[in-house]
Amino acid sequence: LDIAFIVEGSDNVGEENFNIVKKFLEKVITGMNVGQEDIHVTVMQYSETVTLEYSFREIQSKESILEKVRSIPYQGGKATNTGNALDYISKHTFTPVNGGRQDVPHLVYMVSSSPSTDVITRPPRSINVIPIGITPNANIQELRKISQPNNPIILHSYNTLIEEAPELVLQSCCSHKLWTEIPELCNKPMDVLFLLDGSSNIGASEFEEMKNFVRAFIESVEISNTSIHVSVLQYARENNLEISWNMPQETEKLLEMVHSIQQREQGPTRLGKAIDFVVQNAMSESHGGRPSASKVAIVIVSGRSEDTMEAAALSARMNRVSLFPIGVGNRYDEEQLRTLTGPSAANRIMKLQNFEDLSTMITLNSEFIKKVCMDPVRECIDEDGNKKKPGDKWTLPDQCHTVTCFPGDYTVLESHQINCERMPKPVCHSNLPAVKIEETCGCRWMCPC
């Protein structure tokens, strides 16, 4: 992570409160893993102008930064030019020439207690801004606008800055790659498949944002034989398995493969067909699916599917595939998202305004990954919600599938459907042709009397 702290130093703040801000910075930076290979920090003060107090180019050691923070002089100034400060950050702070790294998330914490005295333009989406607003004078609406799609941290006085804010900052910032609960939650075999919409209603930049989302996920979890494997399917009129689980499951190789996926821009969106393909083919052992791994499909949906998906969604549930639909924008059909999850798992649905919010959902917050890792609960549970023990076997409501619970609490689904069309017809002694008899789970041939 590259983290920028920018703090207001105008006349409205006053020297006493500014010293509290310095103590807050000290407390937060002390709690961070700062270092050459870890978090990098830059510190700025702003009022009418911006003063760079500590840059990314300087030595990235906690001691050096803390020493500098303690000695920052209070700037003062009649104006609070927040727009100018954010403009400076957009144009200069994270650039390579100023020591910014291009392959890590960029995060800004802005401590402010006054409304802006100039016009604000929000930094690009690649820079995540979390304002820390101190009321009563902070303009909360203004801070909300700056922070989207994140939320500002709102405090009632400068004194609470030291009591409450450091913990909130450390929770929001330092979860990427350092999430403590995620390794444990995801420490089980999980085969995760991403479905990317490659249809013609997706723009080139939107397709790139989907790829960035997959890459952010890969960077944030453990890819290994005892943990997560990732595959990617692009769907539209046809389905293309871009990355299968047979391909090298190593972080760097997966990132390269995702980067090189090209949008195929084929006609209409057919999600039902795509889900069916995932369940019947892409998740099979022949494509690298592990029998003992939970199966998860993360589906990015931005438009209405032109085919029905009830049967495909049911097939996914029967085959123990957990579907996580992410609706992006306002063109998708919410009812179709609910069809995918089924009534009992509607909490898997995520809704986002923009494609840019996909990556942010991972880089800034562990909720989505926690949701994915916690979902395929490693318990054997039948269709009525009853817990089953290893060795238990039960029949699904369609009467054509049985499920067996194995040690380690994973289930295997067996199909008892018979397609008599694929079986040779018997030769009947009566020389009459065999008759096809339809049954609950398929059909069989029978010789007429």
TrEMBL record:
Q: Which InterPro entries match?
A: ECM_Assembly_Org (IPR050525), VWF_A (IPR002035), vWFA_dom_sf (IPR036465)
The record's listing under Pfam families reads:
VWA
Database matches in SUPFAM superfamilies? vWA-like
Transmembrane feature ranges:
none
* Domain (VWFA): residue spans on this chain: 2-182, 191-372
Q: What's the protein name?
A: von Willebrand factor
Q: What broad taxonomic lineage does this protein's source fall under?
A: Eukaryota, Metazoa, Chordata, Craniata, Vertebrata
